Amino acid sequence: MKVWHFRQADGTVLSRWTGGVSLHLAGVRTLDEVVFGEPGDLVLLGSCSLEGLNLRVDPLSKRLIDAGPAPAAAA
User: For residue range 40-72, what is the model confidence (pLDDT) as tens digits?
Assistant: First the structure.
């Protein structure tokens, strides 16, 4: 879709393509915009992707688990 520029902790700037994708993980699908990494880049699943999949990280087992019911406001 477009190229984004990211500043790293050491001050260097990277350019990476971004675009919309369909994610499928742990039997669940969602749509999201992602950054397409290059060889050697860190692999990271972002918070928007996790929310779209309704998953969270269990800090003890370090695994993705169902996040449970989504919060909603009553009328």
Answer: 988 888 888 888 899 999 999 999 899 999 888
Output the CA torsion sign for 73, 32, 24, 59.
negative
The Cα–Cα gap between 17 and 50 comes to 20
pLDDT at 45: 82
Residue 58: closest CA among 49, 47, 67: 67
Q: Which residues contact 14 (CB under 8 A, 6 or more apart)?
A: 5, 6, 8
Q: How far is CA 34 from CA 4, 21, 22, in A?
A: 11, 7, 10
More confident residue, 42 or 19: 19
Structure tokens at 49: 């992707």
Amino acid letter, residue 2: K
